[in-house]
């Protein structure tokens, strides 16, 4: 959610960047304060830009107010930013996502991942229940409640809500492309609210930064030879030495987490994700009596904004993949590391940031309590906003909830979902009324 000055126009705007298709479970029977949430959970969305069907799915949530469509902002990429204006008094804009993660293995689910089944204890099982179809609908329900219960409310700032694709694969054709657009620049954004994560305690979590992802590939070369011969500097030997060095670094970082010195999101993680070596045989296996001339390993590396990326690159070049051992490496940096002024992508959570106290007071006004602000261990589209120097928090109002994003049996209790709507009502009214 972005809060910006409201001067020329005073209406709500609903924008969607959904290049996808919908499969809706026609047999579902819904009795809920928010039927649209169940419908969204039961949709199986794909990222082929052919229909814009999700926009049609979400529109019923807004039928209580006038709606008019202004067309796609990026028609050259398909129906990727269909913008609809609706309601009156302000413009909402907030970040949501148009891709559904892989549903793990269906056989590990107690209920089908797109069934949106609510059990007797109030748990709603579905892929996306926590990450992040819940807040996609909570924003809309909160706005509708504000209009219905307080029709005289007139925000002094405009408010925008946005639904964008491809956050799970980097957001390069979603949020990154949008923040570079003329339309975004004209919005004069002052504050942004993105996704957060569930809390297992009675307090809500809030995030002031993300870790930045690197895809690191380390490659070793060496002399090939018969499997019976022993000689120095083989590709496999060189790679194993590098793996040992990286593993020791990872162990040291993990020890800081285990001993409570740093949080998981405050260290550099380097997790191996694949190994590739060997000489393939005709039967699809490997030749067992031949030592390969090449071998490589891939790592998912995550950097907190407090780490100097140049120092880590120096470590990789000198220790993890030194040329003296016939090693090479390649890094794909999946997102920005610094803002336009060269500063770490961090949003202040003190009096230097006036939005912080407004946000914190709004959560407390509805009975909520915030945990100590933290760095998100993963990565969201918020990094593209922080790169512009715009204050940005990650927040999802889910407390007393087991963290199950991307996991089997992802669920959200209906009471938690409904309570989150009330939290957003307070946040939206406070932020859009801030005069600072």
From TrEMBL:
User: Which GO cellular component term is one of those annotated?
Assistant: cytoplasm
The record's InterPro entries line, in alphabetical order, gives: Aminoacylase-1_M20A (IPR052083), N-acyl_aa_amidohydrolase (IPR010159), Peptidase_M20 (IPR002933), Peptidase_M20_dimer (IPR011650)
Query: What keywords would UniProt list here?
Result: Metal-binding, Zinc
| Record bears the keyword Zinc | yes
Domain spans labelled Peptidase M20 dimerisation = 215-319
Q: What Gene Ontology molecular function terms does this protein carry?
A: aminoacylase activity; metal ion binding
How does the cofactor attach, per the note?
Binds 2 Zn(2+) ions per subunit.
Can you tell which superkingdom this protein's organism belongs to? Eukaryota
**UniProt xrefs under Gene3D superfamilies:** 1.10.150.900, 3.30.70.360, Zn peptidases (3.40.630.10)
Output the GO biological process annotations, alphabetical, semicolon-separated: amino acid metabolic process
Name any cofactors this protein relies on: Zn(2+)
The record's section on Pfam families has: M20_dimer, Peptidase_M20
Question: Which positions are annotated as binding Zn(2+) 1?
Answer: 131, 195
Q: Per UniProt, where does Zn(2+) 2 bind?
A: 131, 168, 406
Q: Which NCBIfam families match?
A: Ac-peptdase-euk
PANTHER family named in the record: AMINOACYLASE-1 (PTHR45892), PUTATIVE-RELATED (PTHR45892:SF3)
Q: What is this protein called?
A: Peptidase M20 dimerisation domain-containing protein
Q: List the source organism.
A: Lactuca saligna (Willowleaf lettuce)
Q: What is the lineage of its organism?
A: Eukaryota, Viridiplantae, Streptophyta, Embryophyta, Tracheophyta
């Amino acid at each position: 959610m972005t809060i910006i000055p409201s001067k020329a126009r005073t209406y709500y705007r609903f924008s969607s960047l959904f290049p996808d298709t919908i499969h809706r479970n026609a047999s579902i029977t819904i009795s809920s304060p928010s039927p649209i949430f169940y419908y969204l959970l039961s949709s199986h969305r794909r990222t082929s830009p052919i229909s814009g069907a999700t926009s049609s799915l979400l529109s019923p949530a807004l039928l209580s107010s006038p709606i008019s469509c202004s067309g796609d902002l990026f028609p050259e990429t398909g129906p990727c930013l269909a913008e609809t204006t609706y309601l009156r008094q302000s413009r909402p804009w907030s970040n949501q996502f148009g891709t559904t993660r892989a549903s793990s293995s269906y056989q590990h689910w107690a209920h089908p991942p797109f069934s949106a089944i609510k059990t007797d204890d109030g748990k709603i099982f579905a892929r996306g229940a926590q990450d992040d179809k819940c807040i996609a609908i909570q924003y809309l329900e909160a706005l509708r409640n504000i209009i219905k219960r307080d029709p005289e409310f007139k925000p002094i700032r405009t408010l925008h809500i946005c639904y964008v694709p491809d956050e799970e694969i980097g957001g390069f054709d979603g949020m990154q492309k949008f923040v570079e657009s003329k339309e975004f620049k004209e919005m004069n954004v002052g504050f942004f609210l993105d996704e957060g994560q569930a809390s297992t305690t009675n307090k809500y979590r809030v995030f002031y930064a993300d870790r930045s992802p690197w895809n690191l590939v380390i490659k070793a070369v060496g002399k090939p030879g018969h499997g019976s011969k022993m000689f120095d500097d083989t590709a496999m030997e060189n790679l194993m030495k590098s793996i040992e060095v990286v593993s020791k670094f990872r162990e040291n970082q993990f020890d800081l987490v285990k001993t409570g010195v740093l949080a998981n999101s405050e260290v550099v993680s380097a997790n191996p994700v694949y190994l590739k070596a060997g000489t393939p045989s005709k039967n699809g296996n490997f030749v067992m009596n031949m030592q390969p001339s090449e071998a490589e390993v891939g790592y998912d590396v995550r950097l907190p904004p407090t780490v100097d990326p140049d120092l880590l690159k120096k470590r990789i070049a000198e220790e993890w993949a030194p040329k003296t051992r016939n090693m090479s490496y390649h890094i794909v940096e999946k997102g920005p590391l610094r803002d336009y002024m060269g500063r770490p992508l961090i949003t202040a959570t003190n009096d230097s940031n006036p939005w912080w106290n407004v946000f914190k007071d709004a959560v407390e006004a509805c009975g909520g309590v915030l945990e100590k602000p933290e760095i998100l261990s993963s990565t969201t589209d918020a990094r593209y906003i922080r790169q512009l120097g715009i204050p940005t928090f990650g927040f999802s109002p889910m407390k007393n909830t087991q963290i199950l994003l991307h996991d089997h049996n992802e669920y959200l209790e209906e009471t938690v979902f409904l309570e989150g709507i009330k939290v957003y009502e307070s946040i939206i009214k406070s932020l859009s009324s801030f005069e600072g």
